[in-house]
Amino acid sequence: MSEPTPPLHYLSGELTLESSPLSGLAERYGTPLYVYSRGAIEQAWRDYDSALDGHPHLVCYAVKANSNLALLNLLARLGSGFDIVSIGELERVLRAGGDPARVVFAGVGKREEEISRALEVGIRSFNVESAAELERIDRVARRVGRRAPVALRVNPDVDPGTHPYISTGLKESKFGIPMAEAGALCRRAAAMENVELVGIGCHIGSQLTRLEPFRDALSRVLALADDLAGEGIPLRQIDAGGGLGIRYRDEEPPTPAEYAAALLPLLAGRRETLIVEPGRSIVGNAGVLLTRVEYLKQNGERRFAIVDAAMNDLLRPALYDAWQPVWPVRPRQGTPIRYDLVGPVCESGDFLARERELALEPGDLLAIGAAGAYGFVMASNYNSRPRPAEVMVAGGGDWLIRERETLDELMQGERLLPDA
Ligand SMILES: *Cc1c(COP(=O)(O)O)cnc(C)c1O
Question: Which end of the chain is more exposed for a tag (fewer CB within 10 A), N or C?
Fold first, then answer.
């Protein structure tokens, strides 16, 4: 078992987040339970912001990684921008006190209502992913009487060296506009009446642990910006996307400071504002999922710890075969045994971890680490399981930031057919 990643640590034999013992939180709020550290989230955001200090920049937190209102509100208070992919995320940002003028809107399938709402509140830019979308934005902007700020998301065809499901910058991916077509589309955008071309950018994937792909992608984007400037089409923003990895197992991802140090030299002497869109690296290591062991079971040679969290609460292991760290909240003496950690959901893919050496008894609490990003946001009600509660800890205090879903809420909105 590896050492917990800060801000998780053992204190007097008990796993603690910041200075809050996790067993107390499990008692008070029940399990399964997501717990996040305010200090770790704010520190990660500030690390990006200060590392980019040498150049005009905007850190736009990628809301899809974790969209809880309390978390968005904390980032809004720091002056964060936001990268959104739906109108639902936009409304969350607004309710959390985020500044619409610092919102960039990504995604390949923006609907008309989403575009008009974003125009109405005055977002910073639409990150456009196709010619058809550009036409639609131009049309909607004309209808509502606004000029739409757009940035083209190009597909730089760079292999980020990550999981195929989270690689987005290869030429066969659905994301972005192929490099070969990007110049022509930028010229078209620049000539459109209801659209203002403000920038270009890319986002090549997630959980990247090397800097070269970021640098290669940004170089290609900047080369296109130079071509456009040469044709009299200056841009005011360059978007490098998100994607910096975190530690799940033994990865050693670059820090935001190293990331910034790799990118900033490429921007030396340039005037465009650099936008970055980190999601996972802001919240991933700041959160855990707490779960309790219900049963221990052996089938043939395989031993299972059946816990009260499942794939509906944390999908990454089932979806990507992702490895998440597991730590006992109160480690016990005894010979560790190899367990698969599985949930109660009726799917063989319902596992949270496999082949982990643990000394366990029923009733024990486990913390699944690195669960702050792409954890709760992917939770579903599969098997009619209410979604977990979420708690934020800070400086020894703890706050419930989402109530546990109730069975009534689960069935809310469903209707029976009339008799006969
Ligand atoms: C998902 C996404 C991000 C955030 O990616 P992380 O790996 O969580 O940093 C940023 N930008 C876009 C366009 C995205 O789709």
Answer: C
